[in-house]
């Protein structure tokens, strides 16, 4: 049976906007949209949007929004690739782009750890990233901020696995997050900036550590 028009549509003559359109979504993606990324590590992979996460932060009385697109791909080897594409509005007309974009990969995640919380709240504002007890990077709080940001997060996803997201499936949570960066060089000795983001769910205490770099938004195609 064809789906009829809603009362809102009859009264306004317009279609009720899809749930993805009701949150900060600069790529105008839908849950299930395909995404290709023109970067060396991801050429040939087709990703799909699993979640759209709107972050809403209030700083000095002003509201700031950014979005994370949770992307997954399953290449021929069967090993899932999971990324977050983080999109922030650009300040002014930097580089002629309306938004900045970062590609982030999950570095680690774990349950509440008071010792780790003391690390990210340390007055040094320094974060040391280790892998197998080996130091791989020293990072510093962006803009020398000494406290965590608090964000209200709305998560749009298809929990019912029926091919579309609905308002009833939107999840909401609050996170504390800490942002870090460092200046380094790539394999060709060209300068680049790396970022680390630590998130803690304020209800469950679950920590996630995400690491990544800038990507030109023009290298991302969403269908």
Q: Summarize this, please?
A:
The chain has 223 residues and is mainly beta.
Task: Please give a structural write-up.
The protein has 223 residues and is mostly beta strands. It has one domain (7-222). It has helices spanning 7-12, 114-120, and strands spanning 34-37, 47-59, 62-73, 81-89, 99-110, 126-131, 134-141, 149-157, 171-185, 191-201, 207-214, 220-222. An 8-stranded antiparallel barrel has the order 2-3-4-5-11-10-9-8. It is globular, with a radius of gyration of 19 Å.
The helix/strand class is: mainly beta
Unreliable parts: 1-5
Give the fraction of residues assigned to helices: under 10%
Percentage of residues in DSSP E strands: over 45%
Strand order of the largest sheet: 2-3-4-5-11-10-9-8
Mean pLDDT over all positions = 89
Number of helices: 2
Radius of gyration: 19 Å
Give the oligomeric state. Answer: single chain
Sheet having the most strands: 8 strands, antiparallel, barrel
Topology order in helix (H) and strand (E) letters: HEEEEEHEEEEEEE
The coarse silhouette is globular
| DSSP summary, beta strand count | 12
The tally of structural domains comes to: 1
Rounded to the nearest angstrom, the distance between the terminal CA atoms is 27 Å
């Amino acid at each position: 049976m064809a789906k009829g028009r809603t009362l809102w549509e009859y009264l306004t003559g317009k279609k009720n906007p899809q749930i993805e359109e009701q949150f900060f979504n600069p790529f105008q993606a839908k849950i299930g949209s395909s995404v290709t990324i023109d970067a060396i590590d991801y050429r040939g992979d087709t990703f799909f949007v699993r979640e759209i996460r709107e972050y809403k932060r209030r700083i000095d009385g002003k509201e700031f929004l950014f979005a994370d697109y949770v992307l997954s791909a399953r290449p021929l080897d069967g090993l899932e690739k999971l990324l977050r594409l983080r999109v922030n509005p650009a300040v002014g007309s930097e580089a002629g782009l309306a938004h900045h974009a970062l590609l982030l990969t999950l570095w680690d995640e774990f349950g509440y750890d008071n010792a780790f919380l003391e690390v990210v709240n340390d007055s040094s504002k320094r974060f040391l990233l280790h892998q197998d007890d080996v130091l791989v990077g020293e990072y510093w709080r962006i803009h020398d901020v000494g406290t965590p940001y608090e964000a209200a997060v709305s998560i749009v996803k298809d929990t019912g696995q029926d091919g579309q997201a609905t308002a009833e499936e939107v999840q909401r949570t609050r996170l504390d997050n800490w942002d870090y960066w460092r200046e380094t060089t790539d394999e060709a000795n060209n300068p680049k900036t790396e970022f680390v983001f630590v998130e803690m769910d304020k209800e469950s205490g679950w920590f996630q550590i995400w690491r990544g770099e800038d990507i030109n938004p023009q290298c991302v195609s969403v269908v």
